[in-house]
Amino acid sequence: MAGSLLGQDSGSTAAVTVIKRALELESESRYPQALVCYQEGIDMLLQVLKGTKDVTKKCNLRKRISDYMDRAENIKKYLDQEKEAGKYHKQIKIEENATGFSYESLFQEYLNETVTEVWIEDPYIRHTHQLYNFLRFCEMLVKRPCKIKTIHLLTSLDEGSGKEQQSSGLEEIRESLRNHGVQLELEYSSVIHDREIRFNNGWMIKIGRGLDYFKKPQSRFSLGYCDFDLRPCHETTVDIFHNKHTQKI
């Protein structure tokens, strides 16, 4: 068992809990989540190893860590093969009123220094809060580790009273991005329905509600108004794919 070689201190207990979860996820073929748990559990076990004085326990613990590292490496190889074959698919279900799903929390895993270009297809970048959502998403992209050069946005044109607001808002975002060395390419379509985000490192994310999955804050001074990890969400589904040959929208 995962905890048979460990003591009862808080560090050991936490490590056992995470490793047990990794084993459960692996048995359920939930490999991306299992890999994360293995990596976290191994880090915890290495800390436990540092504080272990008993030579026999130390030797056994090293063997156990090595076994878990082998399992994690095998999962990583499998996931890499799936990505290479374009078969990778992970689904996240965001429940009604769930929190912890800011853009950073949702997308950070798929952003690295190789990301220089992004394509966004979302028909509803029109109203003020939707423009702010897009701005917040752009802010995330401009931060490290990304080296964003170009953002492509395909959306629908507001033909009503909000047309001027949409146009001026996107133009302000374009100008602000330009000041940070990023080009915003805008395109409008009257037949767009799908919501999709693609990064040029091969990751593709489809969110049922697009970028507009946050609920309105209760007030201007309620938690979640600024920190979107604390903002309740609408129910939606996030599908994540990897395709080596990501194409432009």
From TrEMBL:
Keywords recorded for this protein, A-Z: Cell cycle, Cell division, Endosome, Membrane, Transport
SUPFAM superfamilies with a match to the protein in the record: MIT domain
GO terms assigned for molecular function: identical protein binding; phosphatidylinositol binding; protein domain specific binding
Bilayer topology: Peripheral membrane protein
Source species, domain of life: Eukaryota
GO CC annotation terms, alphabetical: late endosome membrane; midbody
Record Pfam families: MIT, MIT_C
MIT domain sequence ranges: 8-86
Compartments reported by the entry: Endosome membrane; Late endosome membrane; Midbody
An annotated GO BP: midbody abscission
Subunit structure: Homodimer. Interacts (via MIT domain) with CHMP1A, CHMP1B, CHMP2A and IST1.
PANTHER family to which the protein is assigned, alphabetical: MIT DOMAIN-CONTAINING PROTEIN 1
Protein name from the UniProt record: MIT domain-containing protein 1
Organism, as annotated: Monodon monoceros
Gene: MITD1
